[in-house]
């Protein structure tokens, strides 16, 4: 189970209780969260960190001016990011870095800071333009100024692919290789159709039957990996979760 947003830590108590439920009641082998890191506190980690296997923190540049230009914080993102990295490692939480490769960072050399931080996984996404979501000035966001070509994304990949933690994800494998639930508990058909009915109304199997999932793309982007903080501390999941 991966909690993403938006920003999951806008509701920290709810997020913590959900992570706890996933571990204590559902016995899921992996619980992770994707966050920009700005609202993660030591108090939250002390109370709920034991229920997390992975914390993925967004960092699009190791130049603070570039982060501000992209919209990632107001000039203090990196200090908080590095402190959070250290705290996660001290608590046994696997630390992952998510980077969106875009117009403002595709030619940045990130090798030295990544080597120093040493995340267990560094996911690098090519910025994705989605029709109706971020493709014009009529949508909530307009990401067209951040768009890069496949060639520019490949150039970034070539410069960083020697890092063992490096996992690239271009537009060609990103669109439909995730199983995403929205706030109404509907699976999203990214780019190919409308959301499914809510799993609260029809159940998981019926909803899954109406969602397109690119399994080949999932495997191509390294969707299966070592996502559990300790292989001997997670009981077997209940049979009812075997979909």
Task: Give an overview in words.
It is a single chain. This protein is α/β, with parallel strands linked by helices and 243 residues long. Helices cover 32% and strands 12% of the residues. The chain contains ten helices and six strands, in the order βαβαβααβαβαβαααα. The protein has helices at 12-24, 42-48, 64-70, 77-90, 111-117, 150-160, 171-174, 199-202, 204-208, 215-220, and strands at 2-3, 32-35, 54-58, 94-101, 121-126, 166-169. Strand 2, helix 2 (42-48) and strand 3 (54-58) form a beta-alpha-beta unit.
Helix content: 25-40%
SS class: alpha/beta
Biggest sheet record: 6 strands, parallel
Q: Pick out the low-confidence regions.
A: none
Number of beta strands: 6
Major sheet strand order: 1-2-3-4-5-6
Shape: globular
Helix/strand order, N-terminal first: EHEHEHHEHEHEHHHH
Proportion of β residues? 5-15%
Rg computed from alpha carbons, rounded to a whole number of angstroms: 18 Å
List keywords for this structure.
32% helix, 243 residues, alpha/beta, 6 strands
Brief summary:
Helix content is 32%, strand content 12%. The chain has 243 residues and is α/β, with parallel strands linked by helices.
């Amino acid at each position: 189970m991966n909690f993403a947003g938006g920003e999951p830590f806008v509701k920290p108590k709810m997020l913590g209780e959900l992570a706890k439920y996933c571990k204590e009641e559902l016995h899921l082998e992996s619980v992770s969260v994707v966050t920009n890191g700005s609202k993660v506190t030591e108090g939250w980690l002390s109370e709920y960190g034991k229920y997390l296997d992975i914390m993925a923190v967004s960092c699009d540049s190791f130049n603070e001016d570039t982060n501000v230009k992209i919209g990632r914080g107001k000039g203090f993102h990196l200090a908080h990011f590095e402190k959070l990295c250290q705290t996660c490692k001290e608590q046994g939480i696997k630390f992952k870095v998510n980077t969106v490769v875009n117009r403002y960072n595709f030619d940045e050399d990130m090798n030295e800071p990544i080597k120093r931080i040493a995340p267990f996984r560094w996911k690098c996404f090519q910025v994705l333009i989605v029709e109706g979501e971020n493709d014009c000035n009529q949508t909530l966001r307009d990401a067209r100024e951040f768009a890069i070509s496949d060639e520019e994304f490949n150039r970034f990949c070539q410069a960083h692919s020697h890092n063992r933690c490096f996992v690239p994800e271009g537009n060609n494998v990103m669109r439909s290789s995730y199983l995403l639930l929205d706030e109404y508990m509907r699976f999203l058909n990214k780019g190919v159709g409308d959301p499914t009915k809510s799993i609260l109304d029809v159940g998981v199997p019926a909803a899954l039957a109406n969602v397109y999932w690119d399994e080949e793309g999932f495997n191509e982007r390294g969707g299966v990996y070592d996502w559990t903080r300790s292989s001997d501390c997670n009981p077997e999941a209940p049979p009812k979760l075997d979909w």
